[in-house]
Specification:
Chain B: This is Dynein regulatory complex protein 1. The complex is a heterodimer. In chain A, 49% of the residues lie in helices and 7% in strands. Chain A is α/β, with parallel strands linked by helices. Among the domains of chain A are: 45-110, no CATH class; 113-168 and 193-258, no CATH class. Chain B is elongated. The chains are: A alpha/beta, B mainly alpha.
Chain lengths: 447, 757
């Protein structure tokens, strides 16, 4: 209240000697201000403020960002609506706070550490994933994805799609046909059964490094039908061709997708000599011995370091092929064959391969119907190999004697830090002693 | 059905079994946990014990403190290990579920595979048996066709029907069993789902418990560690405090000791000070008296010095004034001098500048003059050359003109003489005598005839004269010479003198002697052929010929040269004699060293000829008297060498002078030409005049006569012609025709042309 009055007085003072009426006027103004009920302290907002508001309001039509001063940019970004079309914001706004707001508005759980601590990346990756998850072939407009490509291609490094919707059935008979494998050969049904072809999208993303795919339907509930989970040959072919063009890919996971030997071979054929691929995960599929042979070939024709083949149908032949590849390999560090049926023949082959291999650090042979012969060979491996740090023999039938042999082999080993023998019928005594040795090794490793 | 039930039971059993291991799996968890707790309690107790021990040990040495410090590390290590174990156990606990599920799954798979095998086997058996039955049925159909009796057929058909129903029943039973199996499987599936959800719940629980547990443990361990650290810190603090107090106490004791020592020292110093004061007072008194005495004497001295000082002051003031005045003067002089110096410097600078300028000018002038000089010298040389050339050409022209005129004159004279002779002999009939004039024999311009004489001639003369030994010859010669000189008029009398003097002064004998010696000694100059030719000749002629060849070799052409040679010989000898006379005592020997005097003599002859000449002339009398034998034959060669060396120079000088002199002797020419003009004397001319008058008269008479003779001849011719005409007329035919021929009446007899002729 006082400040404007003082201002008025100060302005009135110089003119006071000339005219007396002005003084009266100033008095009137003062009085009026004091009695004006609508008068408030808030000063008229600054022009810059008004301009910024205008910019914010019309950002969609006329996005101005780079020409603003940093402080003004800050203000604009704080007040911009998260509902603005991506065509406007995608390549213009790099501010993390804005994208954080977008993310929190779209999703409840947001762990930015999984996205390289970049909210923008998180937003675009999850946005793209959502679109792909809800994409229904022949119904959804493919342009929906294609339009997004130029906007998001700079910001997508990882793609994690755990649902691909199949095309909607028109005829119940086709469905029945599709149920059997023979029905796939019919053109119509095959066309209708294919999932979305990732080829166009993947090849257009220059930074794509990780690709996690699951060809299946989530939360189907009582609408369950087998053909909802059909990874067709054409899908596999499309994916394989796309993968070959994706040169920066480092991690590829294709799980729970009914990948059988033929599809695995097709995929791996296209992944041979890939320049970057480091991790391959084909767990929870239907890969048999032939697929395992192909994987064995891939091991020595790529830079693969981590291979996960758990819960497949690999038997001793496939294990032998993998073991043969492993014997000559110098890149692979981790191999997971959990829940297969390798049996003693395969286990022994892998053991023999590990006698020469010097890079593999971790091997998982849990639930593979192994028994004493494998244990005897592995005791030899434990005595000789100097690279293995982790072995998992859980859920096998090693037996008491096998446990003792393993213990003997482990006596001189100073490297191994993890050795899982739970439910392997080893006997508590050997298990305890083995654990003692492992603890000592862990201490040594820690030091 | 039994089998199906068995299978069901078998399927159920594993479920129970499966449930079995689960608690067993869970059991180790609590056990482990208890064990862990126990361990933890033990560790804590240990820690407490250690702490107690530490408390006991606190008062002990520093080493134990260090140990205690290690103890804190130990605490960390232990808690870390404990936590690691806990973590390991916890993860084991959590993963146990997965492992259990895995094992269950493998078991299930194994059982499934077994069941599948059984089922397949059973189905195959079923199919086989049924196929057998079916075959029997079908085989019976054939029998049925054979049956014709209806009852049998009916029976058979009934049987068939029964069998078929049996077959169907069996099949249906199988289907029912399978369906039941399926139902049980569905139930199993539901069970499995339930189990899975239970497992998941368990997993979650365990995970949460694990998390809680871990958090608790971590907090606990953290507390423990902090406690250990605090304890340690406390210990350290106490320890340090104790140390500090001890140090303070020690310090205080030290301070007290120091204070006592200081007090003692102060007392000592006081005593010393008193002593020193007493001593000082005594010393001061003695010193005072001494000094007073000194002051008195010094005051006296001071007064004296003051008096001297006043005197000196006055003197010095006077001197000062004088010096000041001098100084002023000096200053004035100095300024003057300075001014002068400046002025002089200016002058010096000006002069230097002028000097440099002048030097430059002079150098330039010098250069230009030198250039001029060179140019002029060149011109002069050119001029001289031209002059010499012109002189030569002039002389040549002169010679030619002279010769031409002389010839003409002589031709005229000869014609005159011829005419005179003709006149004398033919006209006058007198005997004619040809006049002999000296100039008629002269050809070319006039010269001194002595020069014309060659050296050889002179030598011959000399030799012959000497051989004759007649003084008349000498006299003749002299007369000749005089005559020549008289004839030559006064042509360079100096030369004549010069030429004559050697001959006059040097006796013929000596000359002859010298020449003979030369001819004998320098035989090497003569060609060997000539020598051979000379062998038969007489001695006189031989010497002459030899001399001739020697002179040609030595290029001695003229008389002068010969005289010079002789003169040179004489001079040399005189020199030698003088040297031998003066240096006879020091130099006994003469030989190779004699060349030097010879050279000397040559030099002196060149340079100071006049002075030498006077000396020589003065000594000639003695030289003449000296016998010629003194010239040793060995010296001749040296003398000749020296002569040849100097001869060229002498000759060069002579030639140039001679050439120049010769151009000027034209004074006698006029006389010569006059004499030529008057070759015919006056008397003869008069005679010729008279003779010419007479002859002219005679000529006139003769001319008249001649004209008359011609007239006669003309008249004779006319006459003969007339005779001819007349004859023609007489003899012509017309006359006969005429009545009266003129011949008849003319009786004329003309003389014939032969007569006329």
């Amino acid at each position: 209240m006082q400040e404007p009055v003082a201002g008025d007085v100060s302005t009135a003072l110089p003119s006071f000697p000339s005219q007396a009426s002005l003084a009266a006027d100033s008095y009137c103004i003062q009085r009026i201000i004091a009695e004006d009920p609508e008068w408030s302290l808030a000063i008229v907002p600054q022009l810059t403020e008004l301009c910024l508001q205008h910019i914010i309001r019309n950002f969609e039509k006329n996005p101005i960002m780079d020409h603003l001063l940093p402080e003004h940019q800050r203000k604009v970004l704080d007040k911009l609506s998260t509902g603005l079309p991506l065509t406007v914001t995608a390549n213009l706004i790099h501010d993390e706070d804005y994208w954080k707001r977008c993310c929190t508005q779209h999703w409840q759980v947001c762990d930015v550490s999984n996205y390289g601590d970049s909210w923008k990346r998180m937003f675009f990756e999850r946005h793209l994933e959502n679109i792909l998850k809800s994409f229904i072939p022949n119904i959804t407009d493919p342009n929906q994805v294609l339009e997004l490509i130029p906007l998001c291609k700079e910001y997508v490094w990882k793609l994690e799609v755990d649902q691909f919707l199949p095309p909607v059935k028109l005829d119940q008979k086709e469905e029945e046909d599709d149920f059997s494998d023979s029905g796939r050969d019919f053109g119509l049904s095959e066309v209708s059964m294919h999932h979305y072809d990732l080829g166009v999208l993947i090849t257009a993303l220059p930074h794509l490094e990780q690709l996690n795919l699951t060809y299946g339907v989530k939360d189907c509930g009582m609408n369950f039908e087998w053909n909802l989970f059909n990874f067709t040959h054409q899908d596999c072919y499309n994916l394989a061709v796309a993968l070959k063009k994706c040169h920066n890919l480092k991690i590829f996971k294709l799980t729970r997708s009914k990948v059988d030997d033929d599809k695995a071979r097709l995929l791996i054929q296209n992944l041979l000599d890939h320049p970057c691929l480091m991790e391959l995960n084909l767990s929870h599929n239907l890969i048999g011995d032939k697929g395992a042979c192909a994987v064995g070939k891939l091991i020595n024709h790529s830079k693969l370091e981590i291979l996960d083949m758990c819960n497949n149908q690999i038997r001793h032949l496939g294990a032998q092929a993998l073991a043969q590849a492993l014997a000559n390999n110098s890149t692979l560090t981790s191999l997971n064959l959990r829940l297969n049926c390798v049996e003693d023949e395969g286990g022994q082959a892998i053991g023999r391969a590990l006698l020469t291999n010097t890079t593999l650090k971790s091997i998982h042979l849990g639930s593979n119907e192994l028994s004493e012969p494998t244990a005897t060979l592995f005791s030899q491996v434990l005595a000789q190999n100097s690279a293995l740090t982790s072995i998992n023999f859980s859920c096998n039938h090693i037996g008491l004697d096998g446990g003792k042999q393993l213990l003997e082999g482990l006596m001189d080993n100073k490297i191994l830090t993890e050795f899982d023998l739970r439910l392997a019928e080893v006997g508590q005594e050997s298990e305890y002693l083995i654990n003692q040795i492992l603890q000592a090794n862990q201490e040594r490793a820690r030091l | 059905m039994r089998r199906g039930a068995g299978a069901e039971a078998a399927a159920a059993l594993p479920g129970r079994r499966r449930r079995g291991p689960d608690p067993a799996l869970i059991d180790p968890g609590p056990e482990e946990r208890i064990a862990a707790r126990r361990r933890r309690i033990a560790a804590r107790l240990d820690a407490k014990c250690r702490e107690a021990l530490g408390e006991d040990a606190e008062a002990k040495t520093a080493e134990e403190e260090e140990k205690e410090q290690r103890g804190s590390h130990k605490q960390i290590e232990e808690s870390r290990q404990r936590l690691a174990k806990l973590l390991f156990d916890g993860t084991q606990l959590v993963t146990n579920i997965q492992v259990a599920v895995d094992s269950r799954e493998t078991q299930r798979r194994a059982e499934e595979a077994e069941l599948k095998l059984q089922r397949v086997e059973r189905l195959e058996n079923e199919a086989k048996t049924n196929a057998c039955k079916f075959e029997t049925i079908t085989s019976k159909w054939a029998l049925a066709k054979e049956k014709t009796i209806p009852q049998e057929l009916w029976e058979l058909l009934n049987q068939q029907q029964q069998q078929c129903t049996l077959l169907l029943e069996e099949k249906n039973k199988l289907i029912g069993e399978l369906q039941q199996e399926l139902r049980s499987k569905d139930e199993q599936y539901v069970h499995a789902l339930k189990k899975q959800s239970d497992d998941i719940h368990l997993l979650l629980e365990r995970m949460e418990e694990q998390i809680r547990n871990m958090l608790k443990n971590y907090r606990h361990e953290l507390l423990q560690i902090e406690k250990a650290f605090e304890l340690e810190r406390q210990e350290l603090l106490d320890d340090n405090k104790k140390k500090w107090e001890e140090a303070i106490q020690a310090h205080n004791a030290q301070e007290l000791e120091d204070l006592a020592a200081r007090m003692k020292k102060v007392e000592e110093f006081e005593k010393q000070l008193n002593q020193l004061q007493v001593q000082g007072v005594e010393e001061y008194n003695s010193m005072k008296s001494q000094l007073e005495n000194n002051v008195q004497t010094l005051e006296k001295q001071l007064q004296q010095i003051k008096a001297i000082y006043q005197l000196n002051q006055e003197k010095l003031e006077y001197n000062l004034q004088v010096l000041k005045k001098q100084d002023e003067e000096n200053i004035i002089i100095k300024s003057q001098q300075k001014r002068k110096l400046n002025r002089l410097h200016d002058v010096l600078n000006n002069l230097r500048r002028k000097l440099t300028k002048q030097e430059k000018q002079h150098r330039e002038e010098n250069q230009s003059l030198a250039a001029d000089y060179e140019r002029i010298v060149g011109q002069c040389k050119e001029l001289q050359r031209m002059m010499r050339h012109f002189a030569v050409s002039d002389t040549e022209k002169f010679m030619e003109v002279w010769l031409m005129n002389e010839e003409e004159a002589k031709g005229l004279i000869r014609r005159a003489f011829d005419a005179d002779r003709i006149i004398h002999t033919q006209q006058l009939g007198l005997p004619w005598e040809e006049p002999r004039y000296w100039f008629l024999n002269n050809v070319g311009p006039l010269r001194h005839y002595k020069a014309k004489r060659t050296a050889t001639k002179l030598a011959a003369e000399v030799l012959t004269e000497s051989s004759c030994g007649g003084q008349e010859e000498e006299g003749k010669e002299k007369g000749k010479e005089e005559m020549a000189s008289g004839e030559g008029g006064r042509e360079n009398p100096e030369k004549a003198d010069d030429r004559v003097t050697p001959l006059q002064n040097i006796s013929k004998k000596t000359v002859k002697r010298i020449l003979e010696l030369v001819s004998d000694e320098s035989g090497f100059l003569i060609e060997s052929k000539l020598l051979r030719l000379l062998q038969p000749l007489g001695k006189h002629e031989r010497t002459l010929m030899k001399l001739d060849s020697i002179f040609t070799a030595l290029e001695i052409d003229s008389e002068d040269d010969l005289y010079q040679l002789v003169d040179f010989f004489l001079k040399y000898k005189a020199q030698e004699v003088a040297v031998s006379q003066s240096q006879a005592a020091p130099h006994g020997q003469e030989g190779p060293a004699s060349e030097d005097p010879a050279d000397l003599a040559a030099d002196t002859a060149d340079d100071g000829a006049s002075s030498q000449r006077t000396e020589l002339t003065s000594s000639r009398s003695s030289l003449d008297s000296l016998p010629s034998v003194y010239v040793h034959a060995d010296d001749i060669l040296k003398i000749l060498k020296a002569f040849v060396r100097d001869f060229d120079k002498l000759r060069g000088q002579d030639d140039s002078s001679k050439d120049l002199l010769q151009g000027q002797d034209s004074s006698k020419d006029g006389e010569y030409w006059n004499a030529l003009a008057h070759a015919i004397p006056e008397s003869k001319l008069k005679l010729w005049d008279a003779l010419m008058v007479a002859l002219e008269k005679y000529h006139n008479v003769l001319a008249q006569r001649a004209s008359l003779i011609t007239e006669v001849a003309v008249l004779q011719q006319q006459n003969s012609e007339l005779c001819l005409l007349l004859d023609q007329y007489v003899t012509s035919s017309v006359n006969q025709e005429l009545l009266s021929p003129p011949v008849q009446w003319m009786d004329l007899e003309l003389p014939g042309p032969e007569e006329a002729q």
